[in-house]
Amino acid sequence: MSTAAVPRLGLVANAGQFTLLVVVNALVGGVLGSERTVLPLLADREFGLAAYTAGLTYILAFGATKAVTNFFAGTLCDRYGRKPVLLAGWLVAIPIPVMLIWAPSWGWIIAANVLLGLNQGLAWSTTVIMKIDLAGPNRRGLAMGLNEAAGYLAVAATAMATGALAAQYGLRPAPFLLTAAYLVLGLGLSLFSVHETRGHARHEAATHTGGQNADLSTRQVAALTSWREPALSSASQAGMVNNLNDGLAWGLFPLLFAAAGLSLTQIGALAALYPAVWGLGQLATGPASDRYGRKPFIVAGMLLQAAALALIALADDFTAWAIAAVLLGAGTAAVYPTLLAAVSDVAHPAWRARAVGVYRLWRDGGFAVGALLAGIVADFAGIRAAVWVVAALTAASGLLAWTRMYETRPRP
Hints:
Number of helices: 17
CATH architecture: Up-down Bundle
Mean pLDDT: 91
Radius of gyration: 20 Å
CATH superfamily: MFS general substrate transporter like domains
CATH topology: Growth Hormone, Chain: A
Helix content: over 70%
CATH class: Mainly Alpha
Strand content: under 5%
Structural class: mainly alpha
Order of helices and strands: HHHHHHHHHHHHHHHHH
């Protein structure tokens, strides 16, 4: 009998589809990674955007669009199924490399990043939801570790590759030809090889024994995830601050490194090091949270990120910044898959996709908040001052999770 007729939960039972979705999410991450080294330098060198706030508008556009799209992705996945939403995510991304290559003005870059936000919100959110569907309740930390590791290792590898391409061939068009290749491959795999997983969530919902009510409206789910339920709302605020400091890292770190005289290759290496440690670390932290609990990793990860940001603000050479990037990646690795697993622990399978969407709304809203906050502070007081402000916010977020969040890991 087919998997569609009798859904089976677990990583072993769904190994083929789960592995395919890991590959698809790596391609989604690669599309995002193609911008991390090149666009901050493009803003400075080709478009002459001297003000940091103006230069970070593309991250603001990306973060705001992705945040809102995450919310609707969860609802659409519940209503229409996972695969149609995944395909829509790839289709809206098709114009992105062309727009980045031929952009005659900064407005084109902003428009391309609106499409990138739609792509990431639809495609990345859906691969997360599909893996949660397949994994079942016992190995969610491992499942999210594998998912986020694939995505952010691809971000890292692509950031390094585009830095090397830009150093050899210029900022355009070579780095964005890699983006086009990712899009073609991701759309093809999603169209012809990925299967629908909504039936697995329905099967789990039919046998669910948790305390949460299954029959909730989207408004009720949003309220629970945003502020009413302590663990869900703690995850939402920690996720938002986590991506706030990632928005800072994406938009301002290359400019800080360039101002210190680092080469394009060195900047690309630093831009890749942080997400590389982030990606690899999740292979350990995700399954470890299945064994030891979610809360310790979330609190410790946020505090480690704050310490790493403080080191970046103090440092002024490649070696010190490389050490800080490793620490920042390790802290983010502790937090990222664990927050998703915690949301999945608490949410009922009947509305879990919507809860994940609301969580990701807050989390990726951090990109927009981070770009705006970091840009304003950097314009008034310099990049290092912006890093100090974000470091303080990150530490406060970790302390808030420590005091408000309870342990969510299901007991065997």
